[in-house]
Amino acid sequence: MISQFFVLSQRGDSIVFRDYRGDVQKGSAEIFFRKVKFWKEDGKEEEAPPVFNLDGVNYFHVKVVGLLFVATTRTNFSPSFALELLQRIARVIKDYLGVLNEESLRKNFVLVYELLDEVVDFGYVQTTSTEVLKSYVFNEPIVVDAARLPPLGPAALFMQGTKRMPGTAVTKSVVAHEPGGRKREEIFVDVMEKISVTFSSSGYISTSEIDGTIQMKSYLTGNPEIKLALNEDLSIGRSGISNYGYGSSLGAGPVILDDCNFHESVHLGSFDVDRTLSLVPPDGEFPVMNYRITQEFKPPFTINTLIEEAGSLKAEVILKIRAEFPSKTTANTVLIEMPLPTCTTRVNFDLEAGVVGQTADFKESHRKLEWNVKKFVGGSEHTLRAKLNFSQELHGNITKEAGPVSMSFTIPMYNPSGLEVKYLQIAKKSKAHNPYRWVRYVTQANSYVARI
Hints:
Layout: E1 4-8, E2 14-19, H1 28-37, E3 40-41, E4 44-45, E5 51-54, E6 57-64, E7 67-73, H2 79-97, H3 102-107, H4 109-119, E8 120-121, E9 124-125, H5 130-133, E10 186-199, E11 205-218, E12 226-230, E13 234-236, E14 255-257, E15 259-262, E16 266-267, H6 271-274, E17 276-279, E18 284-293, E19 301-309, E20 314-323, E21 330-339, E22 344-350, E23 358-363, E24 368-377, E25 381-390, H7 398-401, E26 405-412, E27 421-426, E28 436-450
């Protein structure tokens, strides 16, 4: 059971606060924020862990679009359950408000408190289903204008660029109607993959893994049945047997999943025959299928690093990054980081001539190099040269104290696994009923590291 739930802004302001049991002090939100902001472990300044204990109170927290969702308890509560609950509460609130940020929470505080009272009763979880909550929650959301908001979350990335995907699901409530009482019939399916790749010092792949999710958000009235067809040559399990008993009867294909699991609404009757998922989607956003791939795949970026001594107190670092995906695809917000020797005092950067949208900086407090590339076009290559100055001689130990190089990025409309939604079929009530269907792909770096 949980004792309290609250949401804090980046400044530490308490936006939402609900005390369910009264066994934790009232100033817990301020105590929590002060502890998280000035967290120190073994004398080092680091980020606070998602779970910690302070004066007999267990604090659980997750950060969602810059907001801190926090739960407290004095009991021996499952950390994984608490963190999952916080994520689900954030998702339910977002489903109802359409936009999840400080302004939308403040404008809809009555609706948010009504939701919290139905989700948790005296510290015990009742339901986190958007569909079930519709029967108990009656307040209408006050819609926040999303046009002037910065895009947040993976789905908002589809709004970037000149070709915008209309009717994005990230800024739309599942219960509010559009002006005039109309409701736009549409459904969104997002194939989201987080990749982890480790390169050896010689440039070869040491480890590679994909954690994928097929996410769905439905705005269809009447909850019609939906059929989602995946690759026919999809195989599950290296031996052809999945953790759900659905084997690879179609034979080994180019897309091989190590394992997967499905949402409770998915019917798997025809999945083993033609890789089709049938379901009646509940209201709100939910994961249709989660999957994992550990077989080697073609990484979207290759990283080459060269470190050369340029004197007793100087060295030069050359970073070369190449995009291995098609030229019609563009990676956004690419960040390359590289820890430098602790005795580094100054860094001079040499960016490519004529290239825009790139910045380089030396974070002296953390002794690391940061290189930002706003847009990285597929098939292109970029190089950064950095001249380092040291306060003492390293005697050939530069490569031991520097690195590894890490990258973070987001690539819309691209997925390295090759998993595809072949078609999205909706059971029609009439010929006039033709909802909009959007199938989108996005790849993000979970851990992308190159050793030096």
